[in-house]
Amino acid sequence: MKHNMKRIILILLSVLALNQANAQGKKTEKATFGMGCFWCTEAIFQRLKGVTSVRSGYEGGTLTNPTYEEVCTGATGHAEVLEITYNPMVISYDDLLEVFWKSHDPTTLNRQGADSGTQYRSVVFYHTPEQKQLAEKYKAELNKTNAYGKKVVTAIEAAKPFYVAENYHQNYFNKNGSEPYCRLVIQPKIDKLEKIFKAKLKN
């Protein structure tokens, strides 16, 4: 009997270890959003529990390895985007979409505030059919309820090659928080985030 019990415990432990390995294998997923200047939006997602990394970059254009200067012309077709790596056991894609839609104006075509051009367009680049379905459902609901008083124009497209932006764009707000641009444009977004999503923020 003791021997059998030992065997059962060993089998249970190996099953648990396997499940844990599977969970760890799927520990992170990616989400990619374009919502205007990545300087303004990177710091928002960095503060969320379950987000393990945020990289600023370019997606959705025709040029391979574009530079910031080339993207700024609007001629390459890229959008400034954030590639977010997150743990779905801690924060859901639904949650990320909520933060995305509440942190910028998705009703202005190719514009966020004073920033104008196709590189500033509102776009969700989905990585799975589930992400596509959730984004489309959320957008349809926002338009059905007329949540913004205007139509949501966010594009929902399959993920394209992502090109990481130059080093000086990464972690921008955290490194340059005292600059006037950061204080006037980015800080109010962070303050708003802290009010609305307090429970979802890292300590």
TrEMBL record:
Known EC number(s)?
1.8.4.11
- What general EC class does the enzyme of this chain belong to? oxidoreductase
Q: Which residues cross the membrane?
A: none
Q: What GO terms are given for molecular function? A: L-methionine:thioredoxin-disulfide S-oxidoreductase activity; peptide-methionine (S)-S-oxide reductase activity
Which chemical reaction does it catalyze?
Answer: L-methionyl-[protein] + [thioredoxin]-disulfide + H2O = L-methionyl-(S)-S-oxide-[protein] + [thioredoxin]-dithiol; [thioredoxin]-disulfide + L-methionine + H2O = L-methionine (S)-S-oxide + [thioredoxin]-dithiol
| InterPro entries for this protein | Met_Sox_Rdtase_MsrA_dom, Met_Sox_Rdtase_MsrA_sf
Q: Pfam families under this entry?
A: PMSR
Check the record and name the SUPFAM superfamilies matching this protein. Answer: Peptide methionine sulfoxide reductase
Which residues act catalytically here?
C37
The Peptide methionine sulphoxide reductase MsrA domain sits at 30-182
List the signal peptide residues: 1-23
**Keyword annotations from UniProtKB, A to Z:** Oxidoreductase, Signal
Give the family per the record.
Belongs to the MsrA Met sulfoxide reductase family.
Q: What does this protein do?
A: Has an important function as a repair enzyme for proteins that have been inactivated by oxidation. Catalyzes the reversible oxidation-reduction of methionine sulfoxide in proteins to methionine.
Query: What's the protein name?
Result: Peptide methionine sulfoxide reductase MsrA
Gene this protein is translated from: msrA
